[in-house]
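A quick aside before the break. I want you to see a complete sequence-to-structure record at least once, exactly as it would be stored in a machine-readable document. Don't worry about memorizing anything.
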Amino acid sequence: MDIISLENKIGVFFKNENILKEALTHRSYLNENPSWKLPHNERLEFLGDAVLELVSTEYLWRVRPKFEEGLLTLLRAALVNTKMLSKIAEEEIGLQKYLLVSKGESQMSGRAMETILADAFEALTGAIYVDQGFEAAKEFVSRFVLSRLEEIEKGQLYKDPKSLLQEISQADFKVTPEYRILSESGPDHARIFTVGVYFGNELKGEGSGASKQEAETDAAKKALEKLEAGK
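That is the input. The structure line, written in tokens, reads:
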């Protein structure tokens, strides 16, 4: 593990390198390496999650003084959600190269790898807090996370697809989207729902998911994509 390379990338140099190594240790690694003396990173992840929330909340409260609580909450969620944190971890830090995971986990892709990377980013934040204190952790979060605020606001990434679709449908079509279940399949413990979103009687998007809410969100995404393509 090239600790110095990672420290140079993030601009933080640890007094206790073991706390950094702990932040990079996924639970699965311990199963294959029982002699590894450090714990997995879930406790640091728990701490880092709280630090991220506090830093981002204080920042948004300060720089967006006219925003109501609801909008501030959406913006915070967009800044620190799994997708955003995994993107930062992969693209800006290359954190995947430093993680200690099992051979099986190292082959993961998609949502599973996103979760591993986002959790590791939170653990890294927690490790910085433990080793360097709050101000260092705040500086780290500011550099890598809060700097994404303009990108999020410009792309309206803080709005969930259903809210954004409703806003567009009411403004441009004078209708409220209606979600209808089209089909259900699979066993009771692994149901798959297919949902259509309609403007009146016109089907605008169709999505699926393991819950009705997930399927509705997917349908809203598809409808937004279709609307964007039709511009």
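Two observations worth writing down. The first strand starts at residue 178 and ends at 185. The first helix runs from residue 3 to 10. We'll return to this after the break.
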